[in-house]
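User
Here is a favour to ask of a fellow structure person. I am asking you to supply a protein in sequence and structure-token form. Please set it down just below, with no commentary around it:

Assistant
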Amino acid sequence: MTPTRFAAAIALCAAGLAACTPTLRNHGYAYVNGETPVITPGQDTQSSLLSRLGNPSTVGVFEDSTWYYISTTRETLAYQLPQTRERRILAVEFDEAGMVTAVEEYGLDDGRRVNLVRRETPTRGRELTFLEQVLGNIGRLPAGSFTGEENLPGGAGGPRRDD
């Protein structure tokens, strides 16, 4: 084997191995050094959390008294679909005065897969084909549209003026 072919074979093997290297992507709140921030109920407030942690990833849907800090790590390998490797959700609840009342942490194991229903609600009437839509109004024009016997547009239905 010549040195050129040997170098090409090594380059091809290196490219093949590089294609199998997973790509990790982090989304959402970035935990410092992978540690969960210390939040003390009864001491911390909304303003202290904003100054230490920043804005939450999302706020409760029906009530804004719960803040969620969400962090997700996804791994992509070659041509495969990305897979979630790690998820941390920090839920912080507040009272009316803005004081922290409870802190919960959820992981990937706490989640549930939700199957979406792909059914469609049928509409009344019948479905028209493209040709029925295009040719459907032929012959349905009002009789007075070509004779000038109808009201002027924008005339609010009043009688027509004769000049």
